[in-house]
């Protein structure tokens, strides 16, 4: 982390560590920590790669990153407020062994904001320990309605140009035959390899990219829902809303309400 190069998380002799930054700048380098990590986006949005999957953290959402999970930040909005909390946790509890991305309920939001008073505190503090122990003990309940909004990065090099094209043209009408030509594969072979590598069909992958990008736009508060729908390639607000709900299990209007 280059927000403050003097802090080395794994050398801190305390069970919890709070780190709050406005306009956070983070090294784009894969790394891991001995402690687990809760990343909360108060405003803006953040992309995080964890174990070769890219997750989007919209405003008022958080991600739990398990201990020793290899991760890095990818990109973020121009102005972002992040609260990161490191914790020694009971690794026998299955919750703490897996990545979780979830909407932050009001009570957890207030607890996180209260913990800001201990930001970058290097020495052990009894009150900090008790408070954060309670927070992390309840984290599985807070994250009960988590959603796994992510896309996988394929390892097969034959898919490199395909992935690049999908990411650059997600909003366009894409001819799958053109993707096959770019990969020098038959369409049938491309579809088989792509599904094996990402767990998604080409069409579903493009849909996920559109919805993830739309969440970015909505989090930035720059576009309305209808403007967002057309921006990411949908021809009507209705088709966007149906697609959004099929992926997220709630509507775009629900997402907007949750950010407030």
Automatic annotation (TrEMBL):
Gene3D superfamilies per UniProt: Homeodomain-like, Jelly Rolls
Keywords: DNA-binding, Transcription, Transcription regulation
GO terms, molecular function: DNA-binding transcription factor activity; sequence-specific DNA binding
Sequence ranges assigned to domain HTH araC/xylS-type in this UniProt record: 160-258
Domain of life: Bacteria
Pfam family, any one: AraC_binding
The protein's name in its UniProt record: AraC family transcriptional regulator
Organism of this sequence: Chryseobacterium phosphatilyticum
């Amino acid at each position: 982390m280059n927000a403050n190069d003097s802090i080395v998380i794994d050398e801190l002799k305390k069970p919890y560590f709070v780190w709050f930054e406005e306009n956070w700048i983070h090294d784009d380098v894969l790394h891991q920590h001995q402690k687990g990590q809760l990343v909360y986006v108060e405003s803006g949005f953040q992309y995080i790669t964890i174990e070769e999957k890219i997750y989007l953290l919209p405003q008022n959402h958080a991600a739990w990153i398990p201990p020793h999970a290899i991760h890095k930040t990818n990109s973020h909005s121009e102005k972002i407020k992040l609260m990161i909390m490191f914790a020694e946790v009971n690794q026998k509890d299955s919750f703490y062994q897996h990545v979780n991305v979830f909407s932050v309920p009001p009570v957890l939001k207030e607890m996180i904001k209260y913990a800001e008073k201990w930001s970058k505190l290097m020495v052990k503090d009894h009150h900090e320990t008790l408070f954060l122990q309670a927070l992390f003990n309840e984290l599985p309940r807070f994250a009960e309605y988590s959603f796994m909004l992510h896309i996988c990065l394929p390892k097969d090099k034959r898919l490199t140009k395909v992935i690049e094209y999908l990411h650059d043209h997600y909003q366009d009408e894409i001819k799958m035959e053109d993707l096959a030509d770019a990969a020098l594969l038959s369409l049938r072979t491309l579809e088989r390899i792509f599904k094996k590598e990402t767990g998604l069909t080409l069409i579903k992958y493009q849909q996920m990219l559109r919805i993830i990008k739309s969440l970015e736009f909505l989090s930035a508060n720059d576009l309305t829902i209808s403007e967002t729908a057309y921006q990411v390639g949908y021809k009507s607000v209705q088709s966007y809303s149906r697609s959004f709900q099929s992926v997220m299990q709630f509507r775009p209007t629900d997402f907007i309400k949750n950010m407030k």
